Amino acid sequence: MSQSVVDRLQEQFGERVLESSDAFGDHELVIADGDWFEVATFLKEDASLAMDHFTDLTAIDHPERGDARFDVILMVRSSSSGARIRIRTRLSEGKELGTLTAVWPAANWAEREAWDMFGIAFSGHPDLRRILLYDEFVGHPLRKDYPIDRAQPLVPYRDTDEIDKLPPFGIEEGQPFARIDWEARLSGRDAQVSPAIGLQQGQRRTLSDSEAAQQLQARLAAKKAAADSAPAEGAEEGTGD
Amino acid sequence: MEPADELLDDEAALELPTEPMRLNMGPSHPAMHGTVRMVLDLDGEKILNLDLQPGYLHRGFEKSCERGTWSQVFPYADRLNYVSPMLNNVGWSLAVEKLLEIEVPERCQYYRVILGELSRIADHFTCNGASAMELGAFTPFLWLLKVRDWIWDLLEKETGARMTHSFGRIGGMAAPPTDTLEDDLKALLPEVHRVVKEAEIMLIRNRIFLDRMQGVGVLTKENALAYGCTGPVARGSGVAYDVRKDHPYMVYDRFDFEVPIGQDGDNWDRFMVRFEEIRQSVRIIEQAMEQMPKDGPVNVDDPRIVFPEKDDVYTTIEATIAHFKLVMEGLRTPKGEVYSFTEGGNGELGFYIVSDGSGTPYRVRVRPPCWYNLSACREMLMGDMIADIIPTFGSINMIGGECDR
């Protein structure tokens, strides 16, 4: 943490730096949510600051405050000078904050987590999905009004449009011997699952049953019939080879 | 059979279909040590796009911390990075001590350094051993894990548990160092050196291993910084950032050790940085062993913070009440917010804690080093081959417990 960063920011932004503190040795500045992106860009781009090392971005929920219930916190560090700074903004429910993904790509996942856990939306974020929880999860668990013991229902089978997948274990999926007719097996009719039995049970067809194989067999049979009808010719060809 | 070219009407038919294939890797893949799902778009074996989906080990660490007392976080902290739990214990202790504005006695600080560095060695052994094993080198894996087991034997002797010690306390440690610690360390540390050397002989001239590691999974210095990478991943990319050196905590400023950095930012650099760090950790332990006071208190002398002696709890009413208050209400911290960070096994392990002045944390945020290291994984792998995922993912050393919390 560094006092020089605080001075530089106060010099640049003047009145727009709402508060500054150094409690417990951590230098911190409070800014308005509208200045979020501008201050962050300045931290990164300014030659004397050069805050190029992203440390963390997170949020704190204070529901008792009413209007601006969230504190969003950004911590960055300069790799050249080693200075650190913490930037805080207060945000109301439903209000959006500009994304910092373009400034530090690390903000991508940090903001997705803040969205997941607190429901804070970041405008302009390239990919604002839940990251630790699943899409069907209802609510944002790190909010203070989310009870710690709330159970969420199990998600049944998930239908995804883009993924062209049969329902689990469709007929055409898996190995033929994995489809076992347990009734037949237990009654002793089916000691070993042969392809023929597998076919009866509606299993995946093997190569020998396929259309191509049938055509091949038909061609071979026709060839054999032709050879049988003219044995002398076939014998001559054989010696020639 | 007719010649193949007769079937082709035009040139276009010569081209193979180039539609990318979507492949799901994980969440439970045998070659990845970590429960993470990767959705890959592949062109042949080349990775066109990669979507990393963590979260399979999410168990609400931060929410759980808001329920108990400050001391009750230690078992949860153990399970963040379960390969080096002592470093997490120390990190959490230091965070709360920063809020309380206290400093533990010197003997305790050295003790924390020794146990923490042993954990770091175990962590790096696991990562490098597993990296080698995933590329087919099983022998070094077993050698390294053999020594890791000796480290855990030592930690068991000190703390009572092999992995999840829960040994840290706010304002001290659960117990003072044992009398045999120095002798055990003197027996163990040469073995660490020997096995690192043996593993290096097996690996660093192995053509197959070199081909899989060198020039694969490259992360530039700029990207390492912008993605928030720390620890061996950042140092492999040439970022000379080690919390122990740059922001010394405890007694780290009294030791003579070096911070190894890589040049190319590939898997090889990350691998070699870890081996070199093991050597540096051994150096730190040797110096700490010499400098540690032989006797003296381990815990701070403040009954509002530290649990009373068990003998007193059973025999005196004052200690019984003090114990009861600390267990039931928790120790009181001043109102405020602090960010405390230490060098964990994988990088900067930070705890951002918010106190409302009660015995329970208002909010605990852990900055897991793995989280940001893993988010840079996409950058490392884009354009590489699918087989490169295994060594690259291994060299990040993603620990699910810490990443997904």
Unreliable runs of chain A, pLDDT <50, ≥5 residues?
165-179, 190-195, 203-208, 234-241
Instruction: Note the overall shape of chain A.
Output: elongated
Portion of residues in beta strands of chain B equals 5-15%
Portion of residues in helices of chain A? 25-40%
Question: Mind explaining what this structure looks like?
Answer:
The complex is a heterodimer of chains A (241) and B (405). Helices cover 30% and strands 16% of the residues of chain A. Chain A has 241 residues and is α/β, with parallel strands linked by helices. In chain A, the strands form two sheets. Chain A has a five-stranded mixed beta sheet, covered by helices on one side. The longest helix of chain A has 19 residues, at 211-229. Chain A is elongated. Chain A starts with a helix and ends with a helix. Chain B is mainly alpha-helical and 405 residues long. Chain B has helices at 61-65, 74-78, 85-100, 106-134, 138-159, 181-203, 207-213, 221-226, 231-236, 243-246, 267-291, 310-315, 317-328, 369-375, 377-381, 389-396, 400-403; strands at residues 21-25, 37-43, 46-53, 168-169, 172-173, 336-343, 348-355, 361-367. In chain B, the strands form three sheets. Chain B has a three-stranded antiparallel beta sheet. In chain B, strands 6-7-8 form a three-stranded antiparallel beta sheet. In chain B, strands 4-5 form a two-stranded antiparallel sheet. The mean pLDDT of chain B is 87.
Task: Put the structure in a nutshell.
The complex is a heterodimer of chains A (241) and B (405). Chain A has 241 residues and is α/β, with parallel strands linked by helices. Chain A has helices at residues 3-13, 36-45, 107-118, 182-186, 195-200, 211-229, 231-240; strands spanning 17-21, 28-31, 53-61, 70-77, 84-91, 97-98, 122-123.
